[in-house]
């Protein structure tokens, strides 16, 4: 039996009271994950924010919209997408289907859909190379609302529990970095919806359709965006691909119509990045996933603002990231990027290598597996291989599968200077080696920035123990976090 002093007992009681209070604040404000029984639990979070260099953050705020500008231009260069991703498509069945859909939409015709690029670019601040891109997220680029709410949670703790904030803050005297991601995203989408409705000479309330997965747990982040849009006068609708397959139709002048609603102005995909999103369990199909993938094609054949277009999904693939990393400033000029902008972009792109017999031999003979990560084209957690497991995975691949994978220089970010207190399922845990991943959101409509900050639209911080490879909030050991700038 462990005996603790009265002072220690009082301190523990206060700490649990704080954790209860913070977790209840999170649930009350929608920072939650839906359980299978319909109840909710709070998202895991850090009790106080992480410090980040102000100069680096401000540079990323300037650079990330340039990446959005480049990705938009790439996504509208349909011949280049087909040509450059052809080999990858032969190695990855899902992307083969996307390339097929892309040809169906664009071959010999101009698709009327209007690209709304809502992109989250994820970075780590490497100890040697500085802030470097991990990946582009062009479809289902969510958790912007959670990013803003994590900032607000830390402001609440700072005001209500100042002693604990001082104890667990990375640099508690530094100023919290403002985060208006939810507000900026809602304002940008609402502005886009009104433009589309006005162009259609349609009156009444703008309509936003969010395409969602069945029985998913990350619904509160989505509802936070919906509520913010409603406050801008936008009607919000949630539908799965299966529901839309039976509810969409065409109106005059290529207007997209939804049964019982009327004209649709914006479609935002929070689904569609994996085969299961197109699978119909109770409908017989001669070819798997054909019906629902054709629903996506149907949407693109109408004058509706859309994120993500098939083109945007292809342009934010890991293979395209690798190709962009290898581009010179002269090559980027093809898509309207100046030499100065190209230098800014190149500075944040981590080295990548294709999987070839020569590169496999080089890694085995001269490389260090701990300096690289092996990635496939998958979105979300569970698609990266580390260390000596890289050799095991490469040995299991047929050469015909190589083009679906790539090597990326592994990033080793700075660990938090002080131990951090994280909370999961209302239980605290002290983490000695917390590291953070920063995602910056950008919004572009038809290639033009649509936020108050040149396309920048807030940030998302996810932190995890340095010993953990998977840092997802839902699928890993990650926790929500926010920033103080130093």
From TrEMBL:
Cofactors, names only: Mg(2+)
Signal peptide location:
none
- Name its pathway: Sulfur metabolism; glutathione biosynthesis; glutathione from L-cysteine and L-glutamate: step 2/2
What family does this belong to? Belongs to the eukaryotic GSH synthase family.
Q: Which UniProt keywords apply?
A: ATP-binding, Glutathione biosynthesis, Ligase, Magnesium, Metal-binding, Nucleotide-binding
* This protein's name: glutathione synthase
Lineage start: Bacteria, Pseudomonadati, Pseudomonadota, Gammaproteobacteria, Alteromonadales
| GO CC terms in record | cytosol
Please give the organism. Answer: Ferrimonas lipolytica
Which GO MF terms are attached to this record?
Answer: ATP binding; glutathione binding; glutathione synthase activity; metal ion binding
- Residues in domain Glutathione synthase substrate-binding? 207-315
The answer on whether this UniProt entry bears the keyword 4Fe-4S reads: no
EC number(s) recorded for this UniProt protein:
6.3.2.3
